[in-house]
Amino acid sequence: MERISGLERARADRAADRSWVARDRLHGVFAANPTSQEVLELLGRVSFEMGDLPEAGRYWYLTETDNEEARLANAAFEKRFGSNPHAVVHSIPLKAPISVYPPLVQDRLAALRDAVSRDKAASGFLSWSDKGEWLTSEAKPRPKPPKPHGKVPNVVVGVLVSFTVGVWVIGVVTIVRL
Predict the structure, then answer these.
(1) I want to staple 6 with a disulfide (CB 3.0 to 4.6 A). Which of 29, 47, 141, 172 is the partner?
(2) CA 161 to CA 39: how far, in whole Å?
(3) Rounded to whole angstroms, how far apart are CA atoms 166 and 72?
(4) Residues 143-176 pLDDT 10s
(5) Would the CA dihedral through 23, 134, 57, 62 be positive or negative?
(6) What's the CA angle centered on 146, arms 145 and 149, to 5 degrees?
(7) Helix H or strand E encompassing 61
(8) How far apart are CA 76 and CA 81, in angstroms?
């Protein structure tokens, strides 16, 4: 039996006028292929057809799509966030270094990066540590979170497990006696 890809299923759902299902499938495909221009374009298209212009603009922001619909969607997307470049950075689904996107998108992201760098007043809204590594040409590995020190967490877990097992044993004994 031939296996059908998520992208093909999303296209079939869109053709069958099941836009919500198509958009859900495309989100799954996007998670596996976050820089695919085809997936980003189709997510923008489906969102636009559903009447969600800001969402369409959010995905088309990372594509070279340039038509009247894309301009309307991008305007709605930008209107949603006003002139706050930090909010734009926070909302776009940027999951890879700039260098993997098409040249037009690279220019758009570089301009956004520069706007964030210039906007010192809102720098507390979003720090570059959140998405900054993606706005450079090279991605850097994220630091590992600190591990809890000492024996306290182990003792707490041990007490909770012992309590749970004790309650379970009492329950089993009670049921057996009935």
Answers:
(1) 29
(2) 46
(3) 62
(4) 666 666 667 778 888 899 999 999 999 999 999 9
(5) negative
(6) 155
(7) none
(8) 9
